[in-house]
């Protein structure tokens, strides 16, 4: 009888840098706390929040959702490209992710400008305070995500990543996926849920 020996496999590791995962978990905890407080305040003032939601335009928010999902797909494709030793393709996918992030920031900036132009501020009422604080905080995370991806792109152009070493690309992708996930929850809570 022939016995088959299973080769010992290397332990699986979390993609990207472990420090980034701790940062991501901390950020998710902060957003989770904000979402919980939003839910409590909304439950106490359902009419106010419903009236505020009716003043939001759903189409730009849907486009922004699609842009962030496309950006996540692009960074995932970048990771796969670098892992396959196709650095030039990976660089193009990083640029695509930056383009998606830039599109998001442009649309969101226009939305903010329209609200500020209409006299809406953090002190207008509780709905607008949460809307501006949550979406503004997320906006800053998109900016940070783009800075991280841009830094990875610059390093990739210098030949820093290949099939054997692309941890930096995985780290940027992990952060971008967190930004995308937070937006999906934010979109559902602020724009869609009634």
TrEMBL record:
<feature type="domain" description="Heme-copper oxidase subunit III family profile">
    <location>
        <begin position="18"/>
        <end position="194"/>
    </location>
</feature>
<keyword id="KW-0472">Membrane</keyword>
<feature type="transmembrane region" description="Helical">
    <location>
        <begin position="90"/>
        <end position="107"/>
    </location>
</feature>
<feature type="transmembrane region" description="Helical">
    <location>
        <begin position="128"/>
        <end position="154"/>
    </location>
</feature>
<dbReference type="InterPro" id="IPR035973">
    <property type="entry name" value="Cyt_c_oxidase_su3-like_sf"/>
</dbReference>
<keyword id="KW-1133">Transmembrane helix</keyword>
<dbReference type="InterPro" id="IPR000298">
    <property type="entry name" value="Cyt_c_oxidase-like_su3"/>
</dbReference>
<dbReference type="InterPro" id="IPR024791">
    <property type="entry name" value="Cyt_c/ubiquinol_Oxase_su3"/>
</dbReference>
<keyword id="KW-0812">Transmembrane</keyword>
<protein>
    <submittedName>
        <fullName>Cytochrome c oxidase subunit 3</fullName>
    </submittedName>
</protein>
<comment type="similarity">
    <text>Belongs to the cytochrome c oxidase subunit 3 family.</text>
</comment>
<feature type="transmembrane region" description="Helical">
    <location>
        <begin position="174"/>
        <end position="193"/>
    </location>
</feature>
<dbReference type="Pfam" id="PF00510">
    <property type="entry name" value="COX3"/>
</dbReference>
<feature type="transmembrane region" description="Helical">
    <location>
        <begin position="61"/>
        <end position="84"/>
    </location>
</feature>
<feature type="transmembrane region" description="Helical">
    <location>
        <begin position="20"/>
        <end position="41"/>
    </location>
</feature>
<dbReference type="InterPro" id="IPR013833">
    <property type="entry name" value="Cyt_c_oxidase_su3_a-hlx"/>
</dbReference>
